[in-house]
């Protein structure tokens, strides 16, 4: 194999690689030997077919397979010989006009990872804000939980429904006077003002009382999941069967028993654990942001443009999705366009921080163990149908990119924990309001965080002129190895007649190769589902 470097500019590299016809032909011979025992041909005993006849029978396929293997081996040898660390998969192009029997001329283009001086982890100083999980915080959590478990009790038949009340209705929907599939239901409970139904549906039930028959005029949202109903005006003939009012929930032992617990004290114990987890999460989020800010401020180096483009594309896709749910999508999108360069700068910061974390982890032996990886794969497999789980596990085990995506969030957390151990940390007790305000101050000063904010190396400085999209950044757990986020747990399926159920919003998978169908891929309800809310 002959190699000639044709481009060396910044992090960009390009090579002309020549794989000789002799090398390719030798690989064909190897292929012939490997398949000879299985070849069957009339007049010859199994495994005794002459090599020249095997070549004649399978020549084109053998040559193509040998060429592909020679190219793969040639690119690997190039990486070793030139000591290259590719940022992404190299682009390989075979010259046009290649024919079997000729030398293969390749162009190999790639971007390499920058040479990063071993990041210093000395002198890191962090403040750990802690919040005690006291009785007041625990009771507040219980009250919040009780509010979510609303009970309704029957009201007098003369009671007119108001916002916050629940009405039980039968309904029949139609578009242009024609009933549509899934648009009819009985005994559906609707909480007025809950926002569960398409705009205008709940509002028109205000003032209704038992026995009323009303025709509600609404329009399906433009992003409604059923194509022939998108944006269509519709009418729903509604009969009000009951009106119910919220019932007060007294937090006592009886309330705890409705949850299957022995007493209120047991409920407090459970809730205290939950509150502690939440508060610990806030503490970690604050510390991690400050840690990454220190790393970003102390290091500056060129980053691979293709990695930046990939990061920016993910950020931009999420931003465009979120502004599509603003009150004025076109105005929000125009505002967003003004900030394109700022978000590209954020992508650069993310990539640089990801490379830094990776470099620190490798320099100090941070690893994800085989046992931890097996646990990650098993957990991720649970999001698929039982019959697809084995296929998913095999897919991750065989695809390095998929495995890297799955490993990335845990690897980042382990590197961050390692840095926490090395840092000088001072503790300060604050209230929940204070730590939330500290985190919100970062957001207000222009930091972009994605759904969940479980990983914060995308804690990025965004200028004050930020678009109306309101903190909507694509969340990626590790920018060095794009992490595939597990989809949110699927909500319990609702009956078809419970038509106006809110549409669940799906997250796009980060993996670029096909994977088994997810268990959460539900068919959209064919009824007035409200558009999905923008992620915050």
Question: What's the quick description here?
Answer:
With about 525 residues, this protein is α+β, with helices and mostly antiparallel strands.
Fraction of residues in helix = 40-55%
Given the C-alpha coordinates, what overall shape results? extended
What is the gyration radius calculated from CA atoms?
30 Å
Low-pLDDT sequence parts: 444-459, 461-536
What class, by secondary structure content? alpha+beta
Straight-line N-to-C gap = 54 Å
Order of helices and strands: EEHHEEEHEEEEEHHHHHHHHEHEE
Q: How many β-strand runs?
A: 13
Number of discrete helical segments? 12
Strand count, sense and barrel status of the largest sheet are:
5 strands, antiparallel
Mean pLDDT: 80
User: What is the strand content?
Assistant: 15-25%
What do you see in this structure?
The chain is extended and about 95 Å long. The protein has twelve helices and 13 strands. Strands 6, 7, 8, 9 and 10 form a five-stranded antiparallel β-sheet that branches. Strands 1-2-4-3 form a four-stranded antiparallel β-sheet. A two-stranded parallel sheet has the order 5-11. Mean pLDDT is 80; it is low at 444-459 and 461-536. With 536 residues, it is α+β, with helices and mostly antiparallel strands.
Which labels suit this protein?
536 residues; alpha+beta; four-stranded antiparallel β-sheet; disordered C terminus
What is the fold's blueprint, element by element?
Elements: E1 2-9, E2 12-19, H1 21-35, H2 51-81, E3 91-94, E4 104-111, E5 125-130, H3 135-148, E6 151-154, E7 166-175, E8 178-191, E9 213-219, E10 233-247, H4 253-258, H5 264-298, H6 305-323, H7 329-338, H8 340-363, H9 370-381, H10 386-398, H11 400-422, E11 424-429, H12 432-444, E12 447-448, E13 460-461
Helix pairs in contact: 1-2, 3-5, 5-12, 6-8, 8-11, 10-11
